Amino acid sequence: MRKSMTQVLAASALFGLMGLSSAQASEADASMLANTCNGCHGPNGVSQGPAAPTIAGMNKFYLTESMKAYRDGKNRPSTIMSRISKGYTDAEIEKIAGHFSAMPFGRVAMQTTDAAAAAKGKALIKDLCESCHEKDGYAAEDYPVLAGQMLPYLRNNLMDFESGMRSIDANPNMSDKEKRKKKRTLAELKDKHGVEGVEAVLQFYASRK
Questions:
Q1: Domain boundaries, the chain
Q2: CATH architecture of the domain covering 28-110
Q3: How confident is the model at residue 108 (pLDDT cuts 50, 70, 90)?
Q4: pTM for the whole thing?
Q5: Which residue in 199, 192, 191 sits closest to 158, CA to CA?
Q6: 59-98 residue pLDDT tens
Q7: Among the CATH numbers 3.40.50.720, 1.10.760.10, 1.10.1740.10, 3.40.50.1820, which is that of 115-207?
């Protein structure tokens, strides 16, 4: 009898500890949740590599919706992010997004850009891009920060749109008017200014410090 009671008490204590651990995990500190992200996006979300963007200083809503899109397989193809994001709940994703949005945007990895192309790109973005990607791409109110991102990352994302891997029409957070405008802008950039014009715009954004 005593042995049975001891076993019951031990089991109760064990389950109590398990419950406590679960509760603590659900309230995990945002910085702990974000540790996984730092492996690719750099310490505090400031990228130190060519393919992953800096996410520090990004709009919280944009980060939240992007992670959910990766997790749910909606218009965000990725071999890495789609696997990693599946491990997070909506609440945890919002914590991670809040953590990085509060960080200052910075750039550690240096890159070489073409000054002449960047100057041409500056003129182009004033007509074509500035209405959305405001303040030379530094603003993060409604759209992602482009200024200071690495060239390979910028090129890869534009290629995803051109190839159809990512679809403007499939973005649930944009109005029909915004979608039409973005498609017109990309078409005008490519048709009127060609490959050199597209590269000039990317060079400009990459050249921002």
A1: 28-110, 115-207
A2: Orthogonal Bundle (1.10)
A3: confident
A4: 0.80
A5: 199
A6: 999 999 999 999 998 888 888 998 999 999 999 999 999 9
A7: 1.10.760.10
